[in-house]
Write a structure and sequence with these properties.
Blueprint (H helix, E strand, L loop, with lengths): L1 E5 L3 E6 L7 H20 L4 H21 L2 E7 L4 E8 L2 E8 L3 E14 L5 E13 L4 E7 L2 H15 L8 H11 L7 H12 L17 E9 L6 E9 L4 E5 L12 H17 L4 E2 L10 E8 L2 E8 H4 L6 H24 L15 E7 L5 H18 L1 H13 L3 E7 L7 H16 L11 E7 L5 E8 L2
Parallel strand pairs: 15-16
Antiparallel strand pairs: 1-2, 2-3, 3-4, 4-5, 6-7, 7-8, 9-10, 9-13, 10-11, 12-14, 13-14, 15-18, 17-18
Length: about 475
């Protein structure tokens, strides 16, 4: 693709035919021609041989038809239209839309699975530059094996158009997500969670908004299928630079707030660091659809957009040196921890405590948007304690009893992200921290042994403290 003309009122983008791709189809047609000559000269025309040559020739012609296509995309503000003229061997095909009604322009990326001659599975990527109007008219132009130039064309188009007058709202995005995965079992809770993941920015996840190439989070999706019903579903896991992690299957359930476990937080950070090395090989992703069964995809979240790599999971398991295999194994550890938490919730045991865990202790997990050393954290803890004592007599009673017992204070901090951390997910993180660090199966009851209080620092950033009295 190349830009043929660009002015303030007109943009013309041209995609020429790929003459180099004619080698294979012309070879097939040559073989077909030689075969027909041989059959005719031999005086015998076997039906099977004739059909085989006809099929080979038809396939070669179809490839020639696909290769010998060119397209001219024109955006004309004066004429108020966007039109595409696609030239083929059968003539020119045109579509057009009113330019003033455009509400979205995007690139869709699609995977095509096929089996190579040696029996291995492979993936071929295709791209579609799509225009959508306010009345839901949609037109697109397909491109093959040309991802970088399609993305460059999209950026040029967006700069030419400027801010569109109409943008897709959250409900429309949700409808598109459902449409692209209409054959998959997906609950509304999962859909909401997934939308939240893509709305988390770098600052909330422990990264920097200024570095557009920094990977601050990774979302792994694994396509699954129910052998009995043939219904598709998927499992998804996340890891962020802040150490936060989660596990969610599309049919519902799962576990969020896993980053409260220090081991999980460390693995999550290792995943993001490894994903950073994969970024140069990843492709920009606009279509965030879930993968087909037996496919695994890793979506890398950066301030500059979402990038993806994908592979057949069965083939990936056979490649121990592949970085994606390492990512798969590290996410497997997070999945294992999540499964253990889920099992514990289903079969709670109030007697399972580590012999080395301090008794009658006060456990405090702080979620802060700003980095804090231990001294700053203690100062904030004392301030929150004073405020809670003033407003909650039950908390004051617990705190006085803990001070009198001279038991230990266990204080830790987690990076706070407003989009990820709700009261429920923060409580889950607390339970995970207690289990992972002290082997305590906690039973927090608000107002009895569990208290939560939030404040803002001098810069207006949030701090939320969770108190658990293990008495």
């Amino acid at each position: 693709m190349r830009i043929n003309r660009q002015t303030a009122s007109e943009l013309i983008i041209y995609r020429s035919s790929d003459r180099n791709a004619l080698v294979l189809p012309l070879t097939l047609l040559g073989i077909t021609l030689v075969g027909f000559i041989f059959v005719v000269s031999s005086g015998r025309v076997p039906t099977s041989g004739f059909l085989l040559l006809a099929a080979l020739g038809a396939y070669g012609l179809s490839m020639v038809y696909g290769v010998l296509q060119s397209a001219t995309l024109t955006l004309d503000k004066t004429a108020d239209e966007v039109r595409c003229d696609r030239k083929t061997l059968l003539g020119t095909k045109r579509w057009q839309l009113p330019l003033s009604t455009l509400k979205a322009v995007s690139v869709g990326k699609f995977k095509h699975r096929y089996t190579k001659a040696n029996g291995n599975r492979a993936t071929r990527w295709s791209y579609n530059l799509t225009f959508v109007t306010s009345d839901e008219q949609k037109k697109g132009t397909p491109y093959y094996n040309d991802g970088e130039s399609v993305d460059a064309a999209l950026q040029t188009i967006k700069e030419f158009l400027g801010p569109l007058t109409t943008t897709q709202d959250a409900n429309q995005q949700a409808r598109q997500f459902i449409a692209s995965n209409h054959r998959m079992r997906i609950t509304p809770d999962y859909q909401t969670w997934r939308e939240t993941i893509f709305n988390i920015d770098a600052g909330q996840a422990g990264g920097s908004e200024n570095d557009t190439n920094q990977v601050y989070g990774v979302l792994m999706d694994v396509g699954m299928i129910d052998d009995q019903t043939s219904e598709r579903w998927a499992i998804s896991l996340t890891a962020f630079l802040s150490g936060e992690a989660s596990f969610r299957p599309t049919p519902g359930g799962g576990m969020v707030g896993l980053g409260g476990d220090p081991k999980v937080a460390q693995v999550a950070q290792e995943i993001v660091q490894l994903a950073q090395t994969l970024l140069p090989k990843a492709s920009p992703i606009e279509d965030r659809a879930l993968p087909e069964p037996d496919l695994v995809q890793f979506l890398l979240l950066t301030p500059g957009g979402v990038y993806g790599v994908a592979d057949d999971i069965n083939q990936l398991l056979k490649k121990p040196d592949d970085p994606c295999n390492t990512l798969l194994n590290k996410f497997g550890f997070i999945r294992q921890v999540a499964d253990q938490r889920i099992d514990k919730k289903q079969t709670p045991s109030t007697t399972e405590k580590s012999q080395t865990a301090p008794t009658n202790s006060l456990y405090v997990l702080a979620f802060t948007a700003s980095d804090m050393d231990q001294d700053m954290l203690l100062d904030s803890y004392q301030l929150v304690c004073q405020r809670l004592e003033e407003k909650d007599p039950i908390f004051k009673k617990h705190l006085d009893a803990w001070i009198e017992s001279k038991s230990q204070l266990m204080l830790a901090r987690v990076q706070y992200a407003a989009n990820m951390h709700t009261p429920k997910t923060m409580q889950t993180s607390l339970e995970g921290w207690l289990k992972g660090q002290y082997n305590i199966v906690a039973t927090p009851v608000a107002g009895r042994n569990f208290f939560m209080h939030g404040v803002r620092d001098d810069q207006g950033k949030e701090k939320v403290f969770l108190f658990y009295f293990d008495d």
